[in-house]
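Thread title: Can someone regenerate the structure for this chain?

I was given the following input by a collaborator and told the matching structure tokens would be attached. They weren't. Posting the sequence so someone can regenerate them.
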Amino acid sequence: MTGSAGMFVDIEAIADSGETLASGRYAVPVTIGRGDQANLRLPETLSQLSRIHLELTERGGRLHVTDTSTNGVSRDGNRLTRGEPLRIGDREDLELPGVRLNIQRVGGAPEADIHIVARVGSKPSRKVPLGGEALVVFAQGTAGAALEKRPSGFSLDDFAAEPGSASKAVLAILNPEPGGLALHLPRIDNPPDIRLNRAELTPGQHWMVPLDVLTIGGLRLEVHASGSRAIECVNARCRLLNAYRPEENCRWCGYKLIEGVSRMVE
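Best answer:
Regenerated them for you:
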């Protein structure tokens, strides 16, 4: 599972130079590193960081950190024991090679209405406001997909009770929750390639937040907070979303986010 709707933390990653590398609110558990599958992804140029350098988890209602790295994580100047979860406070500073993490536990997810921007290949995109409803992705034809809304909390059991369900195949169910979307991927025969940002997903429960991109075969689903602005990276090998900071580089590939050549989404 790539996230939970129970505990949330605000994280700010600051380089030794003082530059803010990343910041945001994340659902716990959250992984941090420079690998594609990290929830908070740090620049590839920080070569001393591991692909997954550490993980924040909840245990008994308390926040814990686990060092999963080669070069270590320190707290108050003391290096953590690799692989052993350590209980930490609601406000902590952690030191990584070249980076300081400011971590603060918060009461909940950011309040935001979520909508989806759906696109298939080069066809025009369409905005799908969820308004508290679930979004179901059905297989259509040999490689296509169809989107249909259902009541919030919709599940595979609800789908099985629908007339004609035997003739349809569910690829994904997205249910809105505070701060993001709960994503369920059922186990099916011959599934299409499914990725969340760069990470390949397996059947089960996952968690999505604004600026995430879910691809299911040729279908692209972008998650946006209503009223926010985003830039799609112009790098053809990336095309992932970033907060609207055109003077910065893409958080995924490092490509320059130049407003004149990058697509802006509102």
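The chain has a mean pLDDT of 85.
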